[in-house]
Amino acid sequence: MNKREFLKVGLLMGAAAQLPLQSSAAISVAKRKVKHKNWIWVRPNKLDTDDNIKTRYAAFKTAGIAGLFFEYDSERHFRAAKAMGLEAHRWMWTMNQPDLVTEHPDWYSKNRKGDSCADKPPYVNYYRWLCPSRPEVMQHLEKYVSDTLDKDYVDGIHLDYVRYCDVILPVNLWANYNIDQTKELPEYDYCYCEVCKAKFKEQYGADIDSIQYPEASLSWRLFRYNNITRIVNSLSAVAHQHKKMITAAVFPTPEIARRNVRQDWTNWKLDAVFPMTYHGFYKEKVTWIGDAVTEGVHFLSGAFPLYAGLYLSDFKSDDEIAESIRLALKNGAAGVSFFGDVKQSVLDILSREMVKILS
């Protein structure tokens, strides 16, 4: 089961708080400042023939796609995309890295009970989260990004899983895991390892173990926001040293991201952000995509472009896909990014909607 399919089953959560809409004038100004671009998340298939790749990527370019995020490193696919005039970025798992557990079990996060996800992963077996407080974790991630961007066929790095583990699941999934999460449960609340505790005490002069309700501590929450922000901003510096872009796939709104996964993406140093505004995950209607984009654009305040991530399996019709594109752009997104089976019919819809927007 791939990452996005798992999320569809259930690790994204609750709806965002409603914010007042920006004025149409403010949105119009924001749109004029940003050139519209559209993207696709791609899992390159080694069985693809060169002709198939060329045909597919040519169709992407013709429809108005500007770039691709590749989940795997395939030089053949990257170079084929670039030959078609598409940007080719490497999509990486950041804090969730199950492949390191044998070599570096001490690098992994511990929950409030003291269990490490190196040997007791939450929810599913591959949920193995690195501790962002550890210098060796930072060094590992910096080296990975640097080595990736050294390749001439890679145009940028795209961060995913750049957060803590989900602390709360949606209500409708509690029965699936036989849990009641009316409060933050210790087995899903990370990271309480020795390094995190020591660094928190150094910064705030408090022992997290002595705080009666650590899940309610604003300082402890801010400490963890800043931990991930520090990781991202360090990787950003590496990317910019290579004179290449750094972007991130994030939870759909700033409020959801901070509350559910300790992810404060409006304070990151990025070239663009891609909130996964997957309305179906939140049991929302398509119109909610506009609300989510509005919230993100509002809090970014022009720091960098926002592209709305759209999960194609959530849409019941072509009309809904078209509506989602219109809503995203109308509310300040610089474009959209598709995840799923991007058929020619989807590309045709995108082409038509972009013509309307730009006319």
Order of helices and strands: HHEHEHEHEHHHEHEHEHEH
Largest sheet: 8 strands, parallel
What is the CATH homology-level superfamily?
Glycosidases
- Mind telling me the CATH class? Alpha Beta
Distance between the termini: 41 Å
Which consecutive residue ranges, at least 5 long each, have pLDDT under 50?
Answer: 1-33
Strand order of the largest sheet: 6-5-4-3-2-1-8-7
- The coarse overall form would be globular
Count of folded domains: 1
Number of helical elements: 12
Q: How much is the average pLDDT?
A: 90
CATH architectural grouping: Alpha-Beta Barrel
Helical content, roughly?
25-40%
Radius of gyration over all CA atoms, rounded: 20 Å
Summarize the structure.
The protein has 359 residues and is an alpha/beta fold. Helix content is 40%, strand content 12%. Strands 6-5-4-3-2-1-8-7 form an eight-stranded parallel β-sheet.
Structure description:
This protein has twelve helices and eight strands. An eight-stranded parallel β-sheet has the order 6-5-4-3-2-1-8-7. The termini are far apart. The protein has a single domain (3-358), classed as TIM Barrel, CATH 3.20.20.80. It is of the alpha/beta class.
